[in-house]
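Before relying on records like the one below, remember that each one covers exactly one chain. Contacts with other chains, cofactors or solvent are not represented anywhere in the record.
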Amino acid sequence: MASLLTSRIALVTGANGGLGVHVTNALLEAGATVVGLAPKIAAAEFQHPSFVPLPATISSLADAGQAVATVIARFGRIDVLAHLVGGFAGGTPVAETGDETMRQMFALNFDSAFYMLSAVVPHMRQAKSGCIIAIGSRAAEDPGPGVGAYSASKAALVSLVRTVAAENSGAGITANVLLPGTMDTPANRGAMPKEDFSKWVQPASVASLIVWLAGDGGKDVNGAVIPVYGRQS
């Protein structure tokens, strides 16, 4: 395990979030050098010699371009992009959903991915290699009442990643998206304290799948939309 991703440079967005902590640690344990991007992040959050914090926002093409340029300037390449940034808002039918909520969901779940892919893909094409993994949601393919803005933004993300996979299939780049069900994070436990946590998806399981996709074992997986539903019906 320790040598699975040795010498690879991984850029993780949302690196200190509920899922990001697990993904960052799993990539570090697999031997990768991990650049962890988040608005506020410090080296002390991951006491590992191969962790590099990158305090940055990715709310525009310019922001993402600057963040990626910083990584390229230091390491010369980005082998893996794990895009974990996202958010949730819901609780109202589509006809009662305000423009602010719709725009917020697309900004968090779609726009940020578009900006990062736009910035990273040219460098991966130049290197003729790269692995992109994005985190979607089960709601992208299995929407329910009251989450129209969220599910639509995640469905758009799926389309975006599959398009990038198709556009770069001959360039040595893979792009895949994972669709977790409800994940067992502190934030979700706080928001849904009466739910059965044992049925939720474990972040460590998602992290392990990301490590596998980033390694040689996942090199032939491209354009996949992978459900990770745990024990939820």
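The chain has one domain: 15-228.
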